[in-house]
Design brief:
The chain is built from five helices and 14 strands. It is of the alpha+beta class and 293 residues long. The chain has three domains: 37 residues, no CATH class; 143 residues, Mago nashi protein, CATH 3.30.1560; 82 residues, no CATH class. A hairpin with a 3-residue loop joins strand 2 and strand 3. The longest helix has 23 residues.
């Protein structure tokens, strides 16, 4: 009986020691999987990290076609906006690129996100010394929750050799966010070789189409293009609750296959002809986690 009691006590001590080791490496607090990894969604359409910049004093059409700069999904796909030829009028379609990341790369990025303060409490960092500039929003889905941090006018001073001073601003936190954004934009400079693939064109399965009155540029007359699907543009989509004279609809399947080649050969001033006249269209490919207007 005494021998059995000693054996049970020794087993309990061993169990407590093991629990202590699990807690020490971060797996016991919900932050990892027991191997030091940061838990995150793994579904192909599940967002893990997004960096998006928007707002500011810009034309309506600019905000309608605005896309996140970087989106990373649970299957390791990283979708970014690629370079766009600097001509006027610009292409009607954005240049979206996708590359495949290994889990090793995703983990390295999430660790950098933690260093930048993106896996803690939600936060907003203002910069009251300037106006009419955009806001950069960081979204990280990890450790069982969605973390959201935004910074107004990020990069306005952080990118300067001699940053300007603005009272009441958390310059250190803003600099960490800016440094993280720059680092994610240059994976080859720090991620292990072989942990990410080449960029390839992203093929959307759905696309928003915004319909606006056609205004154009009288000095740059453009050849019209016939709207190739039904219904006609005077009945396509639903009115936007926040903008007058703007309607939005989502195109997918065969309709997208028909429309996409026309959109890819058009520019931002192309007049689209339907039964009741000419319209301006803004095309916004939907990302894997997006499905509506």
């Amino acid at each position: 009986m005494k021998t059995r009691t000693i054996a049970i006590a020794l087993a309990a001590v061993a169990l407590l020691a093991a629990c202590g080791r699990l807690s020490d490496d971060g797996a016991g607090d919900g932050d990892g999987d027991g191997n030091g990894s940061i838990l995150h969604p793994t579904g192909a359409n599940d967002l893990v990290l997004r960096i998006a910049t928007g707002g500011g004093f810009v034309p309506v059409e600019f905000n309608l076609r605005s896309l996140p700069g970087i989106s990373i999904y649970g299957d390791g796909r990283m979708i970014v906006e690629g370079p766009v030829i600097e001509i006027y009028p610009g292409p009607a379609m954005p240049n979206l690129q996708v590359r495949q990341l290994t889990e090793e790369a995703v983990q390295a990025i999430l660790r950098e996100a933690r260093v930048a303060g993106l896996l803690g409490a939600d936060a907003t960092f203002d910069y009251p010394c300037v106006t009419d500039l955009p806001t950069t929003t960081f979204t990280v889905v990890a450790e069982g929750r969605t973390h959201t941090v935004s910074a107004y006018a990020l990069g306005f001073t952080e990118a300067a050799e001699e940053p300007a001073q603005c009272p009441g601003v958390d310059a250190e936190a803003r600099q960490a966010l800016y440094d993280f954004e720059v680092k994610i934009g240059d994976l080859a400079s720090w991620l292990p070789e072989g942990s990410f693939g080449p960029e390839e064109p992203f093929e959307p399965s759905e696309m928003r189409v915004y319909v606006l009155p056609y205004r154009g540029d009288p000095e740059l007359e453009q050849p019209p293009v016939d709207w190739p699907i039904l219904p006609g543009l005077d009945r396509f989509g639903e009115p936007d609750a926040n903008m007058t004279d703007v309607r939005c609809g989502v195109v997918a399947g065969d309709d997208l296959s028909t429309l996409l080649p026309e959109a890819q050969s058009a520019n931002q001033l192309t007049p689209w002809v339907s039964d009741s006249g000419e319209f301006a269209l803004v095309f916004r490919p939907l990302l894997p986690d997006e499905h509506t207007c």
